[in-house]
Amino acid sequence: MRGNILTPDGWIRGEIRLADSEPNTIAAIDGQACDPTDNGDDYILPGFIDLHVHGGAGRDMMEGGDAPHVIACLHAKHGTTSLLATTMTAPVEDIERALDAIGGACKERGRNEARILGVHLEGPYINSGKLGAQPPFAREASMDEVKRFNGQAPMRAITVAPEIDGHLALLRQMAEAGIRVQIGHTTGSYEDGVQALEHGATSFTHLFNAMPGLHHREPGMAGAALAHAQYAEIIPDLLHVHPGAIKAALRAIPKLYCVTDSTAAAGMPDGEYMLGRQVVHKCMGGVRLADGTLAGSTLTMDQALRNLVSIGLSIEDASRRVSTNAADYLGESRRGRLAPGCFADLVVLDRNLNLKAVYIEGEVCEP
């Protein structure tokens, strides 16, 4: 593959070669440092990494069965090379059904599918006062239950409302088990957020959404994120968060990363779809409950990249926000960057940032 290649050290105009002995990895990148504005070649960027995916192609992760494979295929066609399958707040039997299917999909990636790295358990350990579009099945966390869930599918991230009695003590246990704990769907205060970070939480789920906002005398949970977080996820569909708020978060949070929070409606026409046990409506470019509440998105990561560039980010910075920072957050050192020894997860884009090709672990993702 030849073009303007974004490496950890900057742009190189040249070619990427895959390893003969391990064809799913990069063997070498050869070429010269360049300014890509000086030529008309394609852009070659690290594949996108999405840590918050509920659905796509008309399917929802909570369905179980082959839904994770269908969803991973839809997002691969939009440049996502790896993702976290994200669950909904639900009765335990619904969650277990979803995890059985996700666990199988984690073990075996199908052709033309993004790699499913594990699970983002978004609930049920959230606050019933900030459900957002989550169904009303929120409850207190249990480490025994988390361990059981982890036996079905790898728990890579769990969203928790830290202000609920008993949750602070569990944050440290989850972190010590290697699970990334995220603060979200919370009514907690600034002080609750600071305490949660001190007890092992490491990120904030869809920053600004389903949490108390920033006020100059009551900084709220959003204020805790802006003042103290190293990582946080944000939805850049330009509906969930105003571009000005995105820019504020970019200045405050060093490794802010983007997610789609995509639903079954992603890649589909307007109409009704399921999000867990909830009926959602795709219309006017978004997804909503019947009362108008935003309920996830129709965003794909290629559009997320274009949206970031449209509000003023460089391609290099936008690429970090849709790939590298998420990989770093999960500790995936061989993903989210183009360098020898890394997985050959990459996207090729034309000068208008439209996708031309997607490679997942060295394999071409066919249209």
TrEMBL record:
Pfam families in the record: Amidohydro_1
Keywords assigned by UniProt, alphabetized: Carbohydrate metabolism, Hydrolase, Metal-binding
Listed CDD domains: NagA
Residue span(s) of domain Amidohydrolase-related: 43-364
Keyword Metal-binding: yes
Name of the top EC class for this enzyme: hydrolase
E.C. numbers: 3.5.1.25
Bilayer-crossing regions: none
Molecular function, one GO term: N-acetylglucosamine-6-phosphate deacetylase activity
SUPFAM superfamilies: Composite domain of metallo-dependent hydrolases, Metallo-dependent hydrolases
PANTHER family assigned to the protein according to its UniProt record, in alphabetical order: N-ACETYLGLUCOSAMINE-6-PHOSPHATE DEACETYLASE
Family listed: Belongs to the metallo-dependent hydrolases superfamily. NagA family.
UniProt name for this protein: N-acetylglucosamine-6-phosphate deacetylase
Organism: Massilia aerilata
Taxonomic lineage: Bacteria, Pseudomonadati, Pseudomonadota, Betaproteobacteria, Burkholderiales
